[in-house]
Specification:
492 residues, mainly alpha, two-stranded antiparallel sheet, 17 helices
């Protein structure tokens, strides 16, 4: 009769690491000397390139040994792309991560695939394929081809995050690095990254905080979800020093949000505030207290800078040209409703649609120096039609649903700390999507990293619920037969 092995719940998925090839000492010495020579030559030519090479040489082995840590170190660079050299460095680091992920995927091909959200990955792949197909009917296919590259990079990083077997600690580390990157970007702006007024930009700087992203509205779209996720990380931190660090970051982020003077950012903050009260189930009193503190910090800033408050509350500038851009986008979409005009081809069509119903107050942003739509949903609708927007919204809704489902699963298992993080991810992503009504960031790495958090947490919850079969114990060796001593025979 066969015996059944006992089944126990899995508490934690063991992280897998890439097995590095064994290199001979001569190879190591040769590579090291070549790197030193290259760094010395670059040092004489360009100091920044030499520093970049040295950082890359340190980063490469780290990514190969510990890919999640490499991702956590890469995430902050996506909020510093407005600084010289950081854009190229961020893309180079992303390429290294992709190569390391591919090597790890091949090394553990037989072990991968547990609870990978294949449906969500298929939706993302179909969205990228549709963007590529739009080159067939685009008036300027060269522009579409150039605009496709950042979409591919973002979708690839999205795939990497969804297919790695990350632990709860590693996901928290990536979330913390996301918050730290936004905080550092804001700090750079507060120190000296405010640009004087220019007065002729569709998203005018006019003395507003830009930070490392070089755009106040994009910066605000990263600040709000960072504040929300910081609140979600606190319950899982037992170290008081880390909690104090997060609190300090939140103060910097709140001041940065007010300094951006972004209407979209403030609207996203309002939505996040209301959603937090609704979504928070076990700690509404704490959430309300944190909201009160945040409102107080923002109010102090606006009280000390009345001009910033006037800009946020008055809309006489029609959104600095957004209303005109949106009117023209609506006119174009009516003529190309299903498939759109092609990726990054809105600016090619916009000058032809200046004449028509509706008042245009910033015609120069359309006819003379065409700008993007500054609305991620409207721009997607105009350029890739209802099909493209439908695929994009399907990815968004799937990620939001995954965050809520993960929160419920963790809560059912009594893991309220990770459940709080999952709920904060839902609210933070919702706030970022609201801010995206005023920017065109569908190809931004930041928004795709945010989209990945919900599915990552849901996959973690499912893996932790998997039963683990304990191998049956080896049978005990058979005992030797007992030999009964025979009594000696009696002699007659």
């Amino acid at each position: 009769m066969s015996s059944l092995a006992p089944v126990l719940p899995a508490n934690r998925a063991a992280p897998r690491q890439l097995q590095l090839p064994q290199l001979s000492p001569n190879t190591i010495v040769t590579v090291t000397l070549a790197a030193c020579v290259a760094a010395g030559v670059l040092m004489a030519y360009d100091f920044r390139l030499a520093i970049g090479l040295l950082v890359g040489l340190c980063y490469l082995p780290l990514v190969l040994v510990n890919l999640p840590l490499g991702i956590a170190l890469w995430v902050p660079s996506t909020f510093l792309t407005g600084l010289p050299g950081f854009d190229s460095a961020s893309h180079a680091a992303g390429l290294v991560i992709a190569l390391a992920w591919f090597g790890q995927l091949r090394a553990h091909a037989s072990e991968q695939g547990r609870h990978v959200p294949r449906g969500l990955l298929l939706l993302a792949a179909l969205f990228i394929i549709w963007l590529a197909l739009s080159m067939l009917w685009a008036e300027r296919p060269g522009s579409s081809f150039a605009a496709l590259s950042p979409f591919i990079a973002a979708a690839l990083m999205f795939t990497v995050l969804l297919t790695l077997d990350l632990t709860a600690k590693q996901i928290r580390l990536i979330a913390f690095s996301f918050i730290a990157g936004v905080t550092f970007s804001v700090a750079i702006g507060l120190i000296g990254g405010v640009k004087p007024p220019t007065g002729d930009s569709a998203i005018g700087d006019d003395g507003r905080l830009r930070g490392g992203l070089d755009d106040p509205n994009y910066l605000a779209a990263g600040i709000v979800p960072s504040i929300v996720m910081a609140a979600g990380l606190v319950p899982g931190l037992k170290n008081v020093a880390w909690r104090i660090a997060l609190a300090g970051m939140c103060v910097i982020l709140l001041l940065g949000l007010a300094a951006t003077e972004s209407r979209g950012g403030l609207l996203a903050a309002i939505v996040a505030t209301l959603a937090s009260v609704v979504v928070a189930k076990r700690s509404r009193a704490v959430v309300v207290a944190l909201i009160a503190i945040g409102i107080g910090c923002v109010a102090i800033y606006f009280a000390s800078t009345p001009d910033a408050w006037n800009r946020v509350t008055h809309t006489a500038d029609k959104g600095n040209g957004r209303s005109s851009l949106w009117i023209v986008a609506g006119r174009i979409w009516k003529d190309h409703p299903v498939v759109g005009v092609g990726l990054d081809n809105y600016r090619a069509y916009a000058p032809r649609y200046v004449s028509g119903p509706g008042q245009l107050t910033f015609v120069n942003f359309i006819a003379e120096r065409p700008h993007v739509v500054h609305n991620v949903y409207l721009q997607t609708l105009v350029e890739v039609g209802l099909i493209g927007l439908g695929l994009f919204l399907a990815v968004i809704l799937s990620s939001l649903a995954a965050a809520l489902r993960a929160a419920r699963r963790f809560e059912a298992r009594g893991d309220f700390e990770t459940s709080a993080l999952a709920r904060s991810v839902f609210v933070g992503l919702l706030a970022a999507l609201v801010a995206s009504f005023f920017i065109s960031n569908a190809n931004g790495l930041q928004i795709w990293v945010l989209l990945a958090f919900g599915p990552m947490l849901l996959r973690l919850a499912k893996r932790q619920e998997d039963p683990v079969e304990v191998p049956p114990a080896a049978p005990l060796p058979a005992a030797p037969p007992l030999v009964t001593p025979r009594a000696p025979a009696l002699r007659a």
